[in-house]
Design goal:
Layout: E1 30-34, H1 41-57, H2 61-79, E2 96-99, E3 105-113, E4 119-129, E5 134-141, E6 164-173, E7 176-185, E8 191-202, E9 205-208, E10 213-215, E11 218-220, E12 223-228, E13 235-238, E14 243-251, E15 263-275, E16 278-282
Parallel strand pairs: 10-16
Antiparallel strand pairs: 1-5, 2-3, 3-4, 4-5, 6-7, 7-8, 8-9, 8-12, 10-11, 13-14, 14-15, 15-16
């Protein structure tokens, strides 16, 4: 039986990548605003678009950091605008921009690519509170260099494992709603990562990671795959089968086991099926007719 490799903390998303570094920003974690009509959103969107274009074109790390600071400040201001949750932001092609099917969560993520090949990520999450008819806005600060042991426990927006999210799947476990997100981390010049994580909300705020992934007796808070930067890995939610499906990764040679710069798809497909309040691992899916 094939053993699922859970790597402590990436279908290939067609986004124009940019790379990003995290700065200490004097930015409050949560902002509140009421629902209403849009105000100056088109104008501010155009300014944001210009900033993102400059970020993508810059070849100087210090300049990237300065531009990103402007993006964070303006994005925070934009998301405080009334009705920003429903505003499309179609011109911001350099970011991840996804909304949950229940229309309660919207996530914006982007990255900075540094000249040494490393990446850092930023983001905002809007979460609708029906009881208050308001949105909470959470700023996401990338701390992906944290010790790997912390990646098996829930984290907050302040020590988020940075990624560009491209799919979100709401699931119910017990009385709670959990948002399963799929993302990509460009990582470095040697490896890429794909991530399946869980977002949920408590009275204390946003949380990432929850023990919903099972393979026999093995339980994980999140699943992260690492593989060669020269290759592509497919990871997506398939609506027809209601499964998260992904390429199975193996080393090119047994002697490279554990050296993820030598890992890549081995032509088999695995998945997770949501059953009994959990994402259950399923090996060797017949998925050839859907690719």
């Amino acid at each position: 039986m094939k053993i699922l490799r859970f790597i402590i903390p990436e279908p290939w998303i067609r986004i124009r990548w940019i790379v990003l570094i995290m700065l200490p920003v004097s930015l409050s974690d949560v902002y509140l605003y009421s629902i209403g009509n849009p105000d100056n959103l088109p104008e501010k969107e155009m300014i944001l678009k210009s900033h993102f274009e400059r970020l993508a074109q810059s070849r100087d790390d210090a300049e990237k950091v300065a531009i990103n600071k402007k993006i964070i400040d303006l994005f925070k201001e934009v998301l405080e605008e009334e009705n920003s949750f429903k505003y499309p932001f179609d011109s911001l092609v350099n970011i991840g921009n996804i909304t949950s099917g229940d229309k309660k969560v919207r996530i914006y993520t982007w990255n900075i690519a540094f000249t040494d090949g490393t990446h850092r990520y930023c983001g905002f999450v809007q979460h609708y509170l029906k009881s208050e008819k308001k949105y909470k806005i959470y700023f996401l600060s990338d701390e992906s260099d944290l010790d790997n042991s912390l990646n098996e426990i829930p984290v907050t927006g302040n020590n988020w494992y940075g990624a560009l999210y491209y799919q979100i799947i709401p699931v119910r476990s017990g009385k709670s709603i959990f948002y399963t997100v799929l993302g990509v981390d460009m990582n470095n010049i040697f490896t890429r990562k794909r991530i399946i994580d869980i977002i949920y909300f408590t009275d204390e705020g946003i949380r990432f990671g929850f023990p919903l992934f099972t393979d026999g007796n093995l339980v994980r808070h999140r699943v992260i795959f690492e593989y060669s930067a020269r290759l592509t890995m497919n990871l997506k939610y398939d609506k027809s089968s209601k499964m998260i499906v992904f390429d199975h990764l193996s080393p090119s040679n047994p002697e490279h086991t554990g050296q993820y710069a030598f890992y890549g798809p081995d032509a088999s497909v695995d998945g997770f099926k949501f059953r009994n309040n959990r994402w259950l691992y399923v090996a060797d899916i017949d998925y050839s007719d859907r690719k």
